[in-house]
Structures are given as C-alpha cells and as structure tokens.
C-alpha cells in the first residue's frame, strides 16, 4: 500500500474514533463524580480524619484535627432532638430506672424524728403554785433527790426587798458572822433613816469616815459607793434589774466592785426568787452534790452544770435542798473542802473567803442577803 493510501486510512480511523471517545469521557466524568460524592458521604459518616477532598492535589492536602463524631439521639426534649456524645453510655431504660428506684427505696434508711422535749417556762418562785410545780418536777426528774424532798419541808420565798437595799446588805454582811453582820447592818439602817432611806443619793452622802464609825471597813465603804454611783449614772436601776434575764443580770452586777459571782447567785435566788440559778461556786451546794451522787471528789465548778442538768429549770430549789442535806451531815471545814477539791494556794484562799460568806447560818435565812424566809 502506498504512503498516500495509508494516510487516508489513518484520517478516516481518527474520524470514526473521535465521536466514540466523547461519550466515554462524559461517562467517566459522571462515574468519577458519583464515586467522589459517595466517598465524601461515607467519609463524613465514618471518620472525617481519613477523608481527602478530590479537588486537592496530594501536595496541598490540609490535615484535619481528629474529633469525636456526634450523632442525633432519638430522645427529644421539648420536641427538639438532643445531641449526645458517641462515647456516652446509653440512657437507662424505664425498666432499669424503676429497678434502681426500687433498690434505692429498699436500701434507704428512714430516720425517725425524735419527739420534741417539752419546754417548761418557770415563773418566779414567789408566784402562787410555782413551788409545788418545782417540787413535782424535781421529784420526777431526779429519783435520788426525791428522798430529800420527802425529808424536808419545801422552802418558801415570800419576802422581797428592793434590789438596791438587798445588794447593799449583801456587801455589808460579807466575811462577817451573823451576829456581827446584824449589828453593823442595824447601825447602817439607823444612819440612813431606816430601810426606806437606803437609796443611792443617801449612801453617796455618807463619807467613808461616817461608815467606819459604825464598823464598815474602808474597802466595803468603797464597794457601797461604787454601787450607788452605778445607780446614779443609770448603769443600774431597780426596775432594770428586775426585768433583766439571768445572763445579762450576772454580767451587769459583777461589774460592781465587791460583788462576785457567788453574791450575784445568792441575790438572784433569795432577793429576786429566780427559779433556775445554780451557784456553781458555792461550797455547800458542791458538797451536797458530792454526797447525793456518791462522788469520790468534790465536783469542780466547771462540772456542776453537767451534773445538775436534770434539775432544770428549778436548780434554785434543788440547791436549797443541797444546803439542807449538808446541814444534816455537818458543814465541812475549809481544810477538808480544799483538800477534797485539790485546789492550789490561790484557790484555797478564794474558797476560804467564799466559805466565810457561805456558812453564815444559811438555813436560818441569812445567806448575807436575808431576803428569803426559809421554810421551817
């Protein structure tokens, strides 16, 4: 075959092949696009980290940060689908939830509330019928105190002196025997023009020299003047003292020079007839508690509140029975009391001073204040 014939044959062949290649190219492009779409969808559904866009060359691929795949949970809230993490545990089914609730109810410990303790509001011991209520309460609250209640007649709290007079009398009787204290108090009343004349202004008008002439020491004279000045300045008054609660009254009265905790407790019991006063520093009451409960040692003042908790709210009346009990056993001497308490030298001096105040014939109605008529 000649060269011309061969050229014509090749030209005809190319013309025949060209129309056939065009549809093939379109089909290939379509198939490629479909495959790319399928690949992209699959990659999005499975792992975006491994997907490579078809339109990027290998040299321009952008690395994707691996991330968790989030899917739509079939559960809905307020009609909207809620997205949950693919790694989250499936929600508990209704049956599982009911089972867990039943187990929790079975294992739950239900604590019963304790019954409220009735609160007794005690009135003044001079109120009608209050002493009977107090004795009935103490008899039921403390079986060990009941024999003493049966043995002695109940105390009576009938008399009442103005607080200023009672406090002044308390200062005058400090560290004195009954006979000596009564003698000085009688002269003091005469100097003031009678008990009705014992007022702050009258007392401040008396000089220390005048008070010493009737047997009042210089120290006690300064105590009396300090009490009168606090009344004159309005820090204290008879009406305020009567209205104060026990804690406030204790704080205010111990601010007066010469009036300590023991004197305040005695004043609250025998002048104001307060029902729930426990003289924790009183040697007679502490000794009575020791004898009543068979304690090896004399209880410390810090232990008295706990030991006498059951007497509330009538600890004043119970204290009165402790004084009666100790009187029947014989009042202990200072040396015996101090040895039993195991006190230091300073404490011994304080307790000796207290005992001189405390055992001035308390059962016969003195107790330095003389404001109570003991039931005989």
Protein architecture, described:
The protein has a two-stranded antiparallel sheet with strand order 1-2. It contains 17 helices and two strands. Among the domains are: 140 residues, Endonuclease Iii, domain 2 (Orthogonal Bundle); 98 residues, Endonuclease III, domain 1. The longest helix has 44 residues. The radius of gyration is 50 Å and the shape is elongated. A hairpin with a 2-residue loop joins strand 1 and strand 2. With 376 residues, it is mainly alpha-helical. 27% of the residues are buried. The N and C termini lie far apart (165 Å).
Give the number of DSSP strands.
Answer: 2
Report the major sheet.
Answer: 2 strands, antiparallel
Q: Find the CATH topology of the domain at 127-156 and 267-376.
A: Endonuclease Iii, domain 2
Proportion of residues in β-strands = under 5%
Residues in helices, as a percent range: 55-70%
What's the alpha carbon Rg, rounded to whole Å?
50 Å
The shape, in one word, is elongated
Structural class: mainly alpha
Concise structural overview:
Belongs to the alkylbase DNA glycosidase AlkA family. This protein is mostly helical. Among the domains are: 127-156 and 267-376, Endonuclease Iii, domain 2 (Orthogonal Bundle); 162-259, Hypothetical protein, domain 2 (Endonuclease III, domain 1, Orthogonal Bundle), CATH 1.10.340.30.
């Amino acid at each position: 075959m000649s060269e011309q014939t061969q050229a014509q044959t090749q030209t005809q062949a190319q013309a025949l092949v060209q129309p056939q290649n065009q549809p093939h190219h379109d089909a290939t492009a379509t198939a490629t696009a479909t495959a790319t779409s399928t690949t992209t969808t699959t990659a999005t559904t499975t792992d975006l980290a491994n997907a490579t866009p078809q339109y990027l060359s290998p040299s321009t691929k952008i690395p994707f940060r691996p991330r968790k795949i989030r899917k739509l949970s079939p559960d809905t809230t307020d009609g909207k689908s809620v997205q949950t993490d693919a790694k989250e545990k499936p929600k508990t089914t209704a049956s599982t939830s009911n089972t867990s609730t039943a187990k929790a109810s079975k294992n739950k410990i239900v604590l019963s509330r304790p019954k409220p303790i009735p609160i007794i509001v005690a009135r003044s011991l001079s109120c009608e019928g209050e002493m009977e209520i107090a004795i009935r309460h103490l008899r039921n609250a403390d079986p060990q105190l009941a024999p003493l209640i049966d043995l002695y007649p109940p105390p009576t709290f009938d008399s009442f002196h103005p607080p200023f007079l009672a406090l002044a009398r308390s200062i005058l009787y400090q560290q004195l025997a009954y006979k000596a204290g009564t003698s000085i108090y009688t002269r003091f009343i005469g100097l003031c023009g009678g008990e009705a004349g014992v007022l702050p202004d009258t007392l401040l008008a008396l000089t220390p020299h005048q008070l010493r002439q009737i047997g009042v020491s210089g120290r006690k004279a300064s105590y009396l003047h300090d009490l009168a000045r606090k009344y004159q300045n309005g820090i204290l008054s008879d009406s305020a003292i009567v209205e104060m609660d026990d804690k406030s009254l204790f704080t205010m009265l111990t601010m007066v020079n010469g009036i300590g905790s023991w004197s305040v407790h005695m004043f609250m019991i025998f002048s104001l007839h307060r029902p729930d006063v426990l003289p924790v520093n009183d040697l007679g009451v502490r000794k009575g508690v020791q004898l009543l409960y068979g304690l090896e040692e004399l209880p410390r003042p810090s232990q008295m509140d706990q030991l006498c908790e059951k007497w509330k709210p009538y600890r004043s009346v119970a204290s009165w029975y402790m004084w009666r009990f100790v009187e029947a056993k014989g009042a202990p001497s200072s040396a015996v009391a101090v040895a039993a308490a195991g006190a230091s030298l300073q404490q011994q001096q304080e307790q000796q001073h207290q005992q001189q105040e405390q055992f001035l014939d308390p059962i016969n109605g003195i107790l330095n204040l003389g404001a109570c008529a003991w039931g005989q």
